[in-house]
Amino acid sequence: METKILALVGFGGAIGAILRYLIGESVPEGYPWGTLIVNLLGSFLLGVIVGLTLSTEIGILLGTGVMGAFTTMSTYSVDVIEMFEKNDYGSGMSYLAITLLGCPLLAYCGMKITQSI
User: Residue 77 and which of 34, 35, 71, 112 are 20 to 30 A apart at CA?
Assistant: First the structure.
């Protein structure tokens, strides 16, 4: 594997991780708003990135690097488990449904928007 590709993934990952942290810190506690926002927004943006005609390098930087570190399935999974363990089934189910339906829908919208340009 090329060193250049690894550097692009690493640089993009650093940007995505910082953005994710900043969003997480800027939302109120109690409901996992930060994770929900980054996963929904990240799905849309990845759809836009995929829908655009980009060079391989830019696609790797933005798609794999930035969006890979920005979005988070693992935190989402733990959030859902914690809600259920607290018997907060309403919040857990709404969070589960919004993410499972919203993320693919927004990715599709991002792809279609860029393909129509």
Answer: 112
Per-residue pLDDT at 112 exceeds 90: yes
Instruction: Indicate if the pLDDT at residue 85 is higher than 80.
Output: yes
CB neighbourhood size of 108 (10 A): 14
pLDDT digits (tens, 9 = 90+) for 53-80: 789 999 999 999 999 999 999 999 999 9
Long-range CB pairs of 75-80 (<8 Å, 24+ gap) are 75/32, 75/35, 76/32, 76/35, 76/36, 76/39, 79/32, 79/35
Contact 113, 46 (CB under 8 A): no
Note down the domain range covering 64: 3-115
In the chain, the number of structural domains is 1
